[in-house]
């Protein structure tokens, strides 16, 4: 059993879009669809409350387990282990959102969750920890739960982003990036990958060398925000056209 928690895992490095990767993605998609269909059909506030608090607990517990794993393995450091990447912050904010139903948190979680977690799920940065290592499961549970929190808040809690949400979250993201640049300097870290690219393949590989890829990432981030808002834009347009007719 210990071999599935070791840092010296030798069963083979994680391979993007391998069978285990595709199965993990399929399970996440299926869980989200079935959960929303079930809750919509049941229309039971008690069930919704159980899911809200259960998902919030899962988000926090998996983050605690990750830090415990790193501490026990003597691989915890302030420069790499704090939940300060966008997805790490989204984990914490998603849990708080589910408990408090705060729309201001939803705006951040929606764009960071889909923009960050979806990208992470497609290009996981987990190195040698392939299936069935603990880190493999923790990674997909973590990022999959962020997506589920956004989906739940949208389809069950009834939240949605607005055009002003794009600008607001974009500005918050940039302020946070500046703060992380200073923090990275203090702890010799690479939070938000603004000091260098991740070791594994990612979209950053196509955005030029450092530091120019940071500017490119700004453009990609804004475009992704617009794309994730697009379904609501087209729905609003459709409703408007039906009202005129």
> Which stretches are low in confidence, meaning pLDDT under 50 for 5 or more residues running?
none
| Percentage of β-strand residues | under 5%
Question: Order of SSEs, N→C?
Answer: HHHHHHH
Number of strands: 0
Q: Residue share in helices?
A: 55-70%
Instruction: Report, as a whole number of angstroms, the end-to-end distance.
Output: 65 Å
How many helical elements? 7
What radius of gyration results from the CA coordinates?
19 Å
Form type: globular
Mean pLDDT: 93
Largest sheet: none
Structural class: mainly alpha
Please, could you describe this protein's structure?
The protein has 245 residues and is mostly helical. 68% of the residues lie in helices and 0% in strands.
Question: What's the quick description here?
Answer:
This protein has 245 residues and is mostly helical.
Characteristics of this structure?
single chain; mainly alpha; 0% strand
Q: What is the fold's blueprint, element by element?
A:
Elements: H1 19-42, H2 45-72, H3 86-100, H4 103-122, H5 134-155, H6 163-187, H7 212-244
């Amino acid at each position: 059993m210990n071999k599935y928690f070791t840092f010296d895992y030798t069963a083979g490095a994680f391979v993007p879009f391998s069978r285990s990767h595709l199965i993990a993605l399929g399970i996440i998609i299926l869980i989200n669809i079935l959960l929303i269909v079930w809750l919509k059909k049941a229309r039971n506030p008690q069930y919704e409350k159980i899911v809200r608090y259960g998902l919030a607990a899962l988000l926090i517990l998996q983050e605690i387990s990750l830090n415990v794993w790193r501490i026990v393995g003597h691989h915890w450091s302030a420069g790499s282990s704090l939940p300060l990447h966008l997805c790490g912050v989204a984990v914490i904010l998603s849990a708080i959102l589910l408990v408090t139903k705060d729309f201001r948190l939803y705006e951040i979680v929606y764009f960071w969750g889909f923009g960050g977690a979806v990208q992470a799920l497609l290009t996981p940065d987990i190195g040698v920890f392939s299936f069935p290592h603990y880190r493999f499961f923790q990674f997909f549970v973590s990022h999959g739960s962020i997506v589920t929190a956004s989906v739940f808040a949208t389809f069950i809690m009834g939240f949605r982003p607005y055009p002003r949400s794009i600008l607001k979250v974009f500005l918050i993201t940039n302020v946070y990036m500046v703060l992380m640049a200073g923090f990275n300097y203090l702890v010799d870290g690479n939070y938000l990958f603004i000091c260098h690219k991740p070791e594994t393949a990612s979209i950053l590989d196509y955005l030029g060398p450092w530091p120019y890829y940071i500017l490119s990432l700004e453009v990609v981030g804004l475009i992704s925000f617009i794309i994730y808002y697009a379904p609501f834009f087209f729905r609003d347009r459709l409703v408007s056209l039906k009202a005129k007719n």
